[in-house]
Structures are given as C-alpha cells and as structure tokens.
Amino acid sequence: MHVKPERQQSRRAELNQRLPAGLLILPTARSKNRSNDSDFPFRFDSGFYYLTGFPEPEAVLVQVLGDAPKSILFCQPKNELREIWEGFLFGPDAAREQFGFDEAYPIEQLDDKLVELIADQPRLYFPIGYDEKWDRRILGWVDRVKARAKTGVTAPSEFVDARMAIDEMRLHKDEDEIAIMREAGRISSEAHIRAMQTARAGQFEYEVEAELLYHFYKNGSRYPAYSSIVASGANATCLHYQENNRKMAQGDLLLIDAGCELHGYAADITRTFPIGGKFSGPQKDIYQLVLAAMQAGFEQVKPGIRRIAYHDAAVRTLTQGLVDLGILKGTVDGLIETEAYKQFYMHGTGHWLGLDVHDVGEYRMDGESRLLAPGMALTVEPGLYFRPLLADSPAHYVQVPEQFLHIGVRIEDDLIVTGSGHENLTALAPKTVADIEATMAG
Ligand code: GLY
Ligand code: MN
Ligand code: MN
User: Fold this and answer.
1) pTM score, two decimals?
2) Are the C-beta atoms of residues 329 and 322 closer than 8 Å to each other?
C-alpha cells in the first residue's frame, strides 16, 4: 500500500484550517459500466483519494470542520461471501486503523448517520453539481433535518462547493507527491525509449502501444494515465487520435503521447521520431522549431513568473520559425496579434499535472494569469500540425508548402516548479535530433 496515513491526515487538518466550520461530504467515484455486466477498472475520485488514500469504490469521506474536527469514513463492510467473488475489502475497522480516520462505519449507515451529522451544522461542503444523484441524496438529508426543526435542530443554510479548497491544495505538490511523480516520469520516459528502440516500418501503431503498456506494467504502474496516442504519418496532425491501428511506413514521423499512472499520479510525455531512425530535411526543420519553442517555454517556468508566460514564449518562437520557413508571411507581432499561428498551433502549451493528467487548480487569479510557485507541476508541450487546406477551411488559412504537408510534431515534458526554477521529471526521454537518432540506432 502506497499511502502514508499521516500525510492524508495532515491534508485533512489543513483543509480544516482553510475552511470555516461545517460538514464536508466527499464521495469517491462510482464504478462505471463498460458493457453488460463488465465494468471499467475502478478509478477513485482524485480529490477523495488525496484526502484519504482509500482505494475502494462505494466510500464517502465525511469531515467535521471546526474546533472539534473529526474524519469519518463510510465504506463497504467486510463480507466474506462477496469477497470470494470480488476480492478483498478493508471494512470499516481496518480502514479506520490503517488510514487514520477517527471513525468508520458501513456504507449502509450513511443516510441515518448523515442526518445526525448534518443537524446544527452551519454549512455543508460537497462537490456541488458534480453528480446529480449525490446532489439529490445530500439535499434529501438536509430535508430530513429540516423536518426535525420542531425538536430544536437547525439545518445548514449555506452550501459550498467543496472542490475549490481541495483543488487549491492539490495544485501545490508536497514532497511525497513529487517523489511519486518523479518515478512516474522516469518509468514513462523509459517506455518512450523502448518505443524508439522497437518501432519498425510494417508494424501497426498498436504494437508500439503494447511496448509502452508493457513497460508501464512491468514497473508497477497499473494503468496508463490517459489513452495513449500512437499516431504515425498524417495521424499525428489529429490532436486526440486514439485508434492506433495504422500500419507504419518507413520515413513516417511517429508521434507518441503516453504516460503512466503511478499510485494515482499521472505522467504525460510526448515524443516524435522518424520510423527508420533518420529525420528527413523538412521533418527536421519542423522538429527543431518545436524543440526551440519548448526551450523558450522552459526558460519561463520559474517561481514568480505568470503561468501564461511559457505559452507566450512558445508561440513567439513558433511564429518566428513559421515566418523563417516561409509558411507564414508578415511580422511576428502582427501574426501573433491576428492569431495566424493557430492554423498550425491550436492548443495551449501545457496544463497542471497531478492526480489527474489535466489536473485541478485555477489558471487565473484576480483576472490575471497566476504566478508560478514552488511545488506546482505542469507540462510544456508545444507542437506544429500541418493539414491540407480544405474547401471549408477558414478563409485566412494559408496553403501549406508540399514538403511540410501531413507533418505533426509535439514534444512534451513534465516539470515541477522549484525554489529557483524547475525540475524536469521527464528529461530522460531523448528529444534532441541527435539523441533520438542515437537512441534509435541502438
Ligand atoms: N495527453 C494529454 C495532453 O497532452 O494534454
Ligand atoms: Mn499534456
Ligand atoms: Mn500529452
């Protein structure tokens, strides 16, 4: 088990410091059906896991916030017959002991206990609007408390979205989280190296996906953090390509966007390399430009700098390069102003990273891009994508020079902001032309 109960306990204590008195109700995720009686593998709710470390479905954290704080878990009871079929359950007693809760009860007692717990609380915190069934059930408890008004109890009059405070805490990673993310970055980098060393013309993209998953699983990751993108040739110009079923040809560029999930934490790496091991001239032109944009972005990832600065730096470098290559015409400032670069670079340069691949946390504060601070984890992922002009392409789109058509390049690393700059968690995966070609040469 990869949970240190003291860590989750201290997060719950911090939440108590951050929030005015009340009752927090935080259910984990629901199991999701795949087909008929087969479910997807269960994935806990990230916020719930952050505060509890508890991995089972059908569990709810209830936290009394205020001068006499208390953490209560509701979870599935031990049930020998059910466990024969479905596997081990902690049950409330072991869960309380091993995960450091003050109290734990079988989930069947949730309705009655919550009506007691909600009585006389000034406010309720729960993930409002996140899951209709939970919204209804929680408000049903409030109604039951109101119905008891004659007995002198009062019902909460304020309802607050529990996620805001938890998300803000999750944005700032602690040492334990950084250690796990470092490991997720290392395993995922090695998987990309394995992909570079094994990908061959004539293979299907999914065979490369198999190499990635093999390396993830062999190293203790049980899932990819998101559906792996293994996109060869023109498929690389589709941002969310996931079919992964094309047969690759010599000279194709292969764009792989894949990372493992380790103990709940995501890695998110993209590398682009040529099948056959040698970049062509035009491929190299585009690749080096994206890499230069990435370097320009890296320089802006340090504390005290606005989050948007690394995107702006990448956009400026890409736009300058597109002009230098004769693809866009005009001044760099003008082309940025009119967003002409968006024909070839239509996504942002990164996002927060953590328990979710697109992790939680506000990007703006007081109407401005927020300042980076130590402990924030983010991706830097510039790219360029050259698709043919179509009859219904926007009128301002320009014709793509033949030699660049169907090229798609993205390069993505995972960074933690440190006291003085940043640490790159995925630097192990080669990304200069020379390093990629050397890695592929074996
Ligand atoms: N793999 C998803 C992303 O790069 O944002
Ligand atoms: Mn990403
Ligand atoms: Mn990615």
Assistant:
1) 0.97
2) no
Q: Do residues 409 and 165 lie in contact, with contact meaning Cβ atoms separated by under 8 Å?
A: no
Residue at a domain's end among 120, 141, 170? 170
Identify the bridge partners of residue 371 per DSSP, sorted by sequence position. Answer: 306
Q: Cα 241 vs. chain centroid, distance in angstroms?
A: 18
Spacing, Cα 250 to ligand 3 middle (Å): 24
Pairing of strands 158-161, 253-258: unpaired
The 10s digit of each residue's pLDDT in 291-308 is 999 999 999 999 999 999
How close is the Cα of 188 to the center of ligand 3, in Å?
12
List the one residue out of 160, 170, 129 whose CA is nearest residue 24: 160
Domain residues for 361? 172-441
Contact of 282 with 273, CB cutoff 8 Å? no
Q: Residues 82-120: pLDDT tens digits?
A: 999 999 999 999 999 999 999 999 999 999 999 999 999
- Catalytic site residue 347? yes
- On whether both 242 and 347 belong to a single domain, the answer is yes
Active site residue 268: yes
